[in-house]
Write a sequence for this structure.
């Protein structure tokens, strides 16, 4: 692998890993606060799955980079500006409808991405994708089922679900953005072209939104910046909490 | 203390089948608004560590159970009838137990 491809792969792995680490942390904030015990367990499970995927992706990012950083160093010792997650992942968890709608929009995109990554020319990436794919299918099922219930539920749940969708929509486009690094990996057969995945995502998401009696928001300006380290003010606050232990007690283990 | 109303969702009993074709066993119960959610909640609560290859969920209200008062008439008569146990004959050689 030449240096440029290697650098592109590190970027790609950080982007995929950071999406899941940050979203997993946001989900974990529900622990002890979900509407009922059963859903508390379910959300914590989703969080653990995502943090598990992030661990594998960031480990591979560190190994590919070859600068001696492992997955913990990447997760706990980077500044917000060095994170490469999409902005949608770092938004505060909001109400239950917001969390579910975000989870649904992300999980469907993640599913198509992982389905394509299973055919990657990169063996380790392929095996990570194969493992993550099974769990992600369940995430789509869980969040999709809830999206239907909230949208087609009470007046209040419908209004909250629609408000969540309206707030999230302008952040969704960032999931399918590609730059030179991505294009280089597509040419090498390592990562999938995201362009053909977007219509598939849109079709599935639209189907659920309509069955949930909700409206697909109008597509307009799309918010972006996370992929190059330009984040909302929310990420720094989140990291200060997520990283405090390693920052205060470097190398602490238990 | 005044009894609090049960404002939880309907209760479902969960049965899981362990790997290897063993019979379904009662694992516990979950609250859920419908069967699909009950299955998902059961999966998250009882089958996330390889405990099961299949799950049944049944509305708890659909189960008819014996009551403590039934203990005498239902179960006691068996106690003094050891001949109901198939242990009064010898097993021929060559039969595997």
């Amino acid at each position: 692998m030449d240096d440029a491809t290697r650098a592109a792969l590190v970027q790609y792995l950080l982007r995929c890993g950071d999406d899941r680490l940050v979203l997993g942390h946001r989900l974990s904030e529900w622990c002890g606060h979900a509407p009922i015990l059963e859903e508390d367990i379910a959300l914590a499970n989703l969080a653990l799955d995502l943090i598990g995927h992030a661990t594998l992706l960031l480990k591979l990012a560190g190994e590919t980079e070859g600068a001696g950083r492992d997955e913990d160093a990447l997760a706990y010792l980077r500044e917000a500006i060095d994170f490469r997650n999409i902005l949608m992942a770092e938004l505060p968890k909001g109400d239950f409808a917001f969390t579910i709608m975000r989870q649904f929009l992300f999980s469907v995109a993640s599913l198509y991405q992982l389905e394509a990554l299973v055919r990657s020319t990169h063996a380790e990436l392929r095996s990570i994708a194969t493992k993550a794919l099974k769990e992600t299918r369940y995430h789509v099922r869980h969040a999709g089922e809830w999206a239907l219930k909230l949208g087609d539920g009470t007046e209040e749940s419908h209004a909250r679900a629609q408000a969540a969708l309206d707030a999230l929509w302008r952040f969704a486009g960032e999931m399918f953005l590609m730059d030179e690094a991505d294009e280089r990996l597509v040419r090498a057969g390592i990562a999938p072209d995201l362009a053909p995945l977007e219509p598939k995502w849109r079709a599935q998401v639209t189907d659920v939104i309509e069955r949930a009696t909700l409206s697909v928001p109008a597509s307009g300006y799309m918010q972006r910046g996370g992929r190059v380290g330009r984040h909302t003010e929310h990420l720094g606050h989140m990291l200060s909490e997520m990283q405090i232990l390693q920052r205060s007690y470097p190398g602490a283990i238990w | 203390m005044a009894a609090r109303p049960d404002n939880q969702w309907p209760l479902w009993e969960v049965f899981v089948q362990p790997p290897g074709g063993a019979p379904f066993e009662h694992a516990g119960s979950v609250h859920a608004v419908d069967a699909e959610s009950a299955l998902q909640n059961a999966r998250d609560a009882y089958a996330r560590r390889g405990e099961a290859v299949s799950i049944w969920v049944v509305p708890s209200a659909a189960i008819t159970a014996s009551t403590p008062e039934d203990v005498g008439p239902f179960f006691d008569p068996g106690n003094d009838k050891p001949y109901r146990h198939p242990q009064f004959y010898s097993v021929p050689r060559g039969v595997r137990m």
Remarks:
- Residues 81 and 87 of chain B are 12 Å apart (CA to CA).
- The two ends of chain B are 57 Å apart (CA to CA).
